[in-house]
Fold these 2 entries.
Entry 1:
Amino acid sequence: MAATVVAPVTATELESDRCGSEEENRGAEAEESSQQQQTGPAAAVSHIRLSKLPLARIKALMKTDPDVSLASQESVFIIAKATELFVEMIAKDAFVYAQQGKRKTLQRKDLDNAIEAIDEFAFLEGTLD
């Protein structure tokens, strides 16, 4: 009579069986670890861009203020990110008004409606005139 051995199966073992051979898994692991260990200019290329706005242009705009003589990269990045979030927020709020008008395209009147209706945008009243 043959003895039956029962061994617990872990989730990683199941995943490796579904994903392919052990050699393929080792190759994928080696590729992942090499991507994590990269440094220098080559590593910068593989990273996702954190800001959608051009940082050099934002820095130039910041320097047009006579009170600003130097602007660190961190401050430029924070201003860029805050600008992105602001534009996204006002665009989403204006898009609600475009949808109420059964349109998919934002118009100036949608921005005006969003500015008038939402207290956070009160400082923008009269700026689009």
Entry 2:
Amino acid sequence: MAQDIDQRMVLDAYEKIHEHGEAKQGKHVLNDITASTDHDGYRVYLEGCNVKLTVNFHSSYNLDYKTEHDLDRFLRRLEDISKDYHKPGRNE
């Protein structure tokens, strides 16, 4: 099933995981979501809730999941991270 995602929200969540999450072996973890990037920064990887999301440089992405429930839970968790963590000096 095709799934449209808010890539701006996803990248915002990635940035906040990277900033506020715990660093573990080249990855960052926050609220059970793991975030990483490839060596040149052209791909962003997010994993959690039995879902793997890869966001590519030109805004294409790949979702790997087994159930809609897992996907919904994963996207809700990313939305929560995006909303709940604010960068210092950012007026939102």
